[in-house]
Amino acid sequence: MIELSDLRHIWRESGSEPGIRVCDSKEVTMLLKGRSADLKKQILKRVTTEIKTYLLIAVFLLCILVAGEFTARRALLLGANALLVLAPILGALAYKEYRLRTLPMSGSLRESISTLIRAIDSTARLYLFAYVATIGLSLTLIEILLVRGKGWNLFTIFFVPIGAAFIVWSYFSGRRYAERMFRAYRSNLICVLNELESV
Amino acid sequence: MEKRLSEEAGGRFLEVLGRHEQIINKVIRIYGVDSEDRKDLFQEIVYQLWRSFGSFKGESRISTWLYRVALNTAITSLRKTKKLPGTTELDDRSLHVSVSFDTPERSEQVQQLYSAIRSLGEVDRALVMLYLEELSYKEIAEVLGLTEDNVGVKLNRIKTKLRVLIGTN
Fold this sequence. Notes:
The complex is a heterodimer.
Chain A: H1 7-14, H2 25-67, H3 72-101, H4 109-150, H5 154-197
Helix pairs in contact in A: 2-3, 2-4, 3-4, 4-5
Chain B: H1 7-31, H2 35-53, H3 62-76, H4 80-83, H5 104-118, H6 122-132, H7 137-144, H8 148-167
Helix pairs in contact in B: 1-2, 1-3, 1-6, 2-3, 6-8, 7-8
């Protein structure tokens, strides 16, 4: 049987156990550099995954343009323009991912968790925006080029509601994607917040 | 992205780290799942401490600031989504605290205490740790973002839980 009053004494004694140590500034500098490199790798991995998704959309767009008898040169020019739009989006995503992983932890636990949840939601919104915007932009571009090349006909008119439906679908699938990406982490944080608020 | 350790700041940081590394080790023992996870968490805490070190203005004790950063990092770390999917599944090996105390009973009591604390919720673990570290209710409230009354109520409830878990008087 342990006396409750004895717990502090036992706890203090447990502090004498040799744990992990960092001895000198060289070791700390190496640790910080290693951690910083890990962080860069994690962000690069996330952004690369996104780039793959957008590349798939770009290839799809290119195929449609080439099949629609647009010259390869014109199609490539459009691809380059699309990249110009995508580059800032991907940059913003990388920044959001960086912020998410490096938010200051020096506030109270409640503040830190609330800030993290806000950062997660904002990052998820940006992912959704990037996804819907890319698909929307691609479809609009196809429609404009089709109309310019072939004028308004049954196909180009029919393409408008199909494209709109596809954009709506991309919104829901993008939302599911963003939710899936952060669901486990976000729900962990919500659990802690609920635990903090319970009496 | 990466801050370099200037000689003066680095020296101060190392001094703080050396003086309070027991705190970090206690936090990782309570929140780390296994030895690999503890090592990872230790590095993450040191990294977060360094990132926040420049903004520490001395409004609270340095140890209180250190508890805050270490506990916040342990509780909110992204690594948990990979290794701790919501529940607290304990790895028996990770419960072992290899301390050579005067008596085997004492050693067993330490094991019992850590094992009881690790079976609590994330916030309760932090609360009991801060209580055992003899922080005042005001300091505990400041670290966790609770009111002092709330800290008192929660601690009473945790003490009752601990009595059951450890079989204390």
